[in-house]
Write a structure and sequence with these properties.
12% of the residues lie in helices and 49% in strands. By secondary structure, it is mainly beta. The protein has a single domain, classed as Pnp Oxidase, Chain A. The strands form 2 sheets. It has a 5-stranded antiparallel beta sheet with strand order 2-1-5-6-9. A 4-stranded antiparallel beta sheet has the order 3-4-8-7, with no helix packed on it. The two termini are 28 Å apart.
């Protein structure tokens, strides 16, 4: 499986992180009702700008399989927290909601809700 990680501004659609264009080490896990993302990255102007919009972020994980349709997982960061940990050089994003779907089947999946 190949995976792409994106962090975008929810309103404007501006991409802050896109591992398809610039690979970065990251990991995520579920923690209770939240999903915690840790991205290893240097502090930069892009990270500073991302932090300004921390209450309006969408996080996406695209999972591309060899013999299955691509799966898109959409996480919404509502009230964070979102912060940069200087000691570990990690951006930490906590998302509160998650929607998983197959883009080619999205309209079918929505009509079943």
């Amino acid at each position: 499986m190949k995976e792409t990680f994106l962090v975008k501004h929810a309103v404007g659609g501006r991409s802050f992180i896109d591992t398809a264009k610039q690979p970065l080490p990251y990991a995520f896990k579920q923690d209770g009702d939240n999903w915690v993302f840790k991205v290893q990255t240097a502090k930069s102007e892009i990270i500073d700008e991302l932090l300004k919009w921390k209450d309006e972020l969408n996080v996406f994980v695209f999972q591309v399989f060899e013999n299955e349709p691509t799966r898109k997982v959409w996480f919404y960061v509502n009230e964070g927290p979102v912060y940069y940990d200087e000691a570990s050089s990690h951006l930490v994003i906590v998302a509160q909601s998650r929607i998983e779907y197959i883009p080619d089947q999205f309209s079918d999946q929505v009509s079943q809700l």
